[in-house]
Amino acid sequence: MRDHPDAIMMFAAGFGTRMKHLTQTQPKPMVPLAGRPLIDHALDLARGIAPRRIVANLHYLPDQLEAHLRPQGVATVREMPDILDTGGGLRNALPLLGEGPVFTMNSDAIWAGPNPLTLLRAAWEPRQMDALLMTVPLGQTLGHEGKGDFALGPEGHLTRGPGNVYGGVQIIKTDLLAEIEEERFSLNILWDMMLQRERLFGMAYPGRWCDVGHPGGIALAESLLADADV
Question: pTM value?
Fold first, then answer.
């Protein structure tokens, strides 16, 4: 089994309910941002590390996304009849992703700074890590409400707590998925198993990050991109 990730799982199945009217007739990854579908900004980052394969899961209005992604060489897997959440969706896509650790990406964030996938790949230590999450210090986030998801400890050990937001990009081993009985479940279940083993790690992103999970995030993200181009 390989120790280093060469495939990317892109989460694109959600209903996008926080986007309100913008997702009534289109899936959230297809919402325009700076003249392009939101998911294309994530694909730019994905292609930046030249992975063996990019896989996207689909559920809500899947025909639109499939028609957009397939010509770009992205493999797709539909979750039917029920959506499986992030953990169940990752396990469902394993036949396409292959064995060993994989990258996972949310498609509803904009990054201004170094490619987070490149940073994760350089810091990945499979002998001591079951997952390596890219976290963003609260002061470097836009459009995020809350106190954060994790505290970043010595040598990158993560604990639940305030201070850092999970940015939606990680490297994660998938073998523990077989131990979870539920069909639909969040990656938080997997992370909690890794926390108990003290094998959940994180790193702080050196740039800025914007949550585009709600309508107000679009203008914030576009301003972030404009500032980055100056």
Answer: 0.96
